[in-house]
């Protein structure tokens, strides 16, 4: 088979996968007619995360997101009623298997392909908050324009797990709160970066390696993500936002220093215990939810560690710690 025939064969198989998972989605809140060609879109998949959404959506609106496209994997917390009251949120409901959809990615890929072509798209989980250089004075639109000027289609990010200096069960988040105030700390160093199978970077570290996988650090989860993309033809996420195809989107180009960002990850609230027990029972996550088992086994830990934990201040702090880079964006 020629290379061209192989290429079209792969595309056709991807189309069939997308068509199958597209049929699993039913739109329940439709405001997509409001989407303009210049809008910045945010895509995510969730289940019972309404508590997080008021602050989350306001945070991204302030950065410049114009419309939110949400896949609701059978939530029972009133998401649809809340979304109906919002001017910029569309929701697709599904009861289908999160695991079978490659942990929600095939649903997100469909929305990105259907609505995101040619748009700057942010794809994150509801507990992830994007931080990038100069964000205090420069919007996502400014960032996207700079990426275009440098012919960069994607922004690489390191995921930084945020936590408090209290035991997990005392770290309580309430709807509308700023999570950066509830969990203000992160690990300033101790990260390991290697080359992935596709030429991109594979990153591990933080408290999930230091505490939850101390005996088996190689099993700690990936912290490399590519959440900001000028979405184009045949783009697709293959493993959460950790892996993106075509591979050029995650490979260093070696031509000039790249701008990079961070995703602050607010998983470590007291509600994690209940969430972990539910997901262990559902077995819809990677490796049957084994990561959630490590949280249940940790027995209410304090993740704060003097000398390693620091309070988040601003993007310049992350640049000084060499966790993100401004590249040529001066």
UniProtKB/TrEMBL annotation:
This is Glycosyltransferase family 2 protein. Its EC number is 2.4.-.-. One of its GO terms (molecular function) is glycosyltransferase activity. Pfam families: Glyco_tranf_2_4. It comes from Rhizobium alvei. Keywords: Glycosyltransferase, Transferase. The keyword Transferase applies.
